[in-house]
Each structure stands twice: as structure tokens, then as C-alpha cells.
Description:
Number of strands: 0
Distance between the termini: 21 Å
Order of helices and strands: HH
Low-confidence stretches: none
Mean pLDDT: 83
Amino acid sequence: xxxxxxxxxxxxxxxxxxxxxxxxxxxxxxxxxxxxxxxxxxxxxxxxxxxxxxxxxxxxxxxxxxxxxxxxxxxxxxxxxxxxxxxxx
Length: 89
């Protein structure tokens, strides 16, 4: 009886981690698309290109977007290793 409970908990945990990994990856794709490219990007729509006097520098919005993207990239890496570890054992 205990083996069945462990298998169910393991299956639920696998599903939760997989859904979390999917949500992180979609959010990461969205944030990467928000970054400005060479000629501006979608981040201009949200205030990324508001300051015209700041040539070559980055605005507060871009810095926060960078921080959020790096944080989600780290979360993506951790969830990838976690999911790999769960499915390998």
C-alpha cells in the first residue's frame, strides 16, 4: 500500500515540476522578445525607448527587464536539472 502512495506522490511531483518548467520557459521566451534589438524592439512599447538623451546607455526599464530575464534564466536552469533528476530516478 505504501508503494502505491509513493508512486502517486512521485507522479504528482513530476507533473508539478513539468508544468512549472513550461510556465518558466514561456515567461522566458516572452521576456527575451521584450528586449530591444539593434533598432529597438517590443520593449519600446512599454517605456524602454522613452529617453532620447540616453544614447548608448540603458534605462531603468531595460535594467529591470535584464534582471528579471536573468532571474528567470536561472530558474529555468534549476527546473531543468530538477526535472532531469526526477525523471532519471
